[in-house]
Amino acid sequence: MLYRNLKTGAAVRLLAHGTDTTPGRGAALVAIYCPADDEHTVHVCDLDAFEAGFIPLPAGELSI
Q1: Is the pLDDT of residue 60 over 80?
Q2: pTM
């Protein structure tokens, strides 16, 4: 699904949800995403931060 970054306006593709299993981090939930036009550059972000900083693109707004 495509999302828009509220700060930059960039379109990103949400690839998956995951769990950070690094010891001491309490199994934090994360969003795994990439730029909509570059699936080879993958980013990971705290899930709460992702949900606060990105909004889903409406079905008709698939332009990036």
Answers
A1: no
A2: 0.86
